[in-house]
Amino acid sequence: MTTAINNKKTVLVVGAGDATGGAIAKRFAREGYVACVTRRSADKLQPLVESIAASGGEAHGFACDARNEEDVIALIEQIETEIGPIEAFVFNIGANVPCSILEETARKYFKIWEMACFSGFLNAREVAKRMVTRQRGTILFTGATAGLRGAAGFAAFAGAKHGIRALAQSMARELGPMNIHVAHVVVDGAIDTDFIRDNFPEKYATKDQEGILNPEHIADNYWYLHSQPRDAWTFELDLRPWSERW
C-alpha cells in the first residue's frame, strides 16, 4: 500500500445509485469531502458527478465490479494514491430480488449473496486496512428489514442482508478499539425513487404525507453517524416513515 499524494478527505460510496447512494455522496460533498462513487457502469454516474460539481463540490466516478477482488483492490489503491485518504466508506448495494424458495435457482441465490454481502466484505476489508494505519475512519453498511427477519419470497435477499449485518457486527467489535466507527443502517420502507413511483403508485401517493423515505433525509443520518463522538457511537440505526408498520 502506498501513501496518498494529498490530504483531501474522501468518502467512497459503493453502489451510488440515483436515490440513496447518490444522496449520501452529495451530503458528504457538501461538507467538503471528495465523493468517490462507483457503479458497474461509469456512464450512469456522470449525472451525479456533474451535479456535485455544479454545487461546488468534487466527485469522481468509477466503474467497478464490487464482487471482483482484483478490481476492488485496484480501486482503493487508486483513490488512496491519486485523490486522498478514505475517511468514510458507505456500502449501498441492494439486490432486492423476490422469488419463491420453490423456484429460486442456485445461480441467482449465489449472485444475490455476492452482490449484497460478499462485495461488502471485499470493499470494507480493503478500506479497513487503510483506516487502521491512520487509526480513524467510518464504515457504514446499508441494511434492510430483511437483515432482521426474512419475509416469504425473499430467502436470497434475507440471507445476504443477514450476512452483511453479521459482518458489520464483527467489524464493529474488532475495529472500534482502533478508532474506526462501524455502523449498520436498517432502511425499512419504500424510498422516493422512480422504481417505487412506476411500480407501486399507491405507495408513492403517500409521499405528500411523508409516507415514503426521502433519500436526502436518509443521507443526513449517514452524515450524523460519521460525525458522532466516539464516546456515543451508534452501531445500528433504524430509519422508517412514521406510517411504516414494524
Give your account of this protein's structure.
- It is built from eight helices and seven strands; from the N terminus they run βαβαβαβαβαβαααβ.
- It has 246 residues and is of the alpha/beta class.
- It has one domain: 3-Layer(aba) Sandwich (Rossmann fold).
- α2 (46-54) links the parallel β2 (34-39) and β3.
Provide a brief overview of the structure:
The protein is an alpha/beta fold and 246 residues long.
Mean pLDDT: 93
Class computed from helices, strands and strand pairing: alpha/beta
Largest sheet: 7 strands, parallel
CATH architecture: 3-Layer(aba) Sandwich
Strand content: 15-25%
CATH class: Alpha Beta
Instruction: Kindly identify the CATH topology.
Output: Rossmann fold
Q: Give the end-to-end Cα distance, rounded to a whole number of Å.
A: 45 Å
Number of DSSP helical runs: 8
Helix content: 40-55%
Q: How many discrete structural domains?
A: 1
Radius of gyration: 17 Å
What are the secondary-structure elements, in order, as H or E? EHEHEHEHEHEHHHE
Label the overall shape.
globular
Strand order of the largest sheet: 3-2-1-4-5-6-7
CATH superfamily: NAD(P)-binding Rossmann-like Domain
Give the oligomeric state of the chains in this entry, treating copies of one chain as homo and distinct chains as hetero.
single chain
Low-pLDDT stretches are none
Query: What is the tally of beta strands?
Result: 7
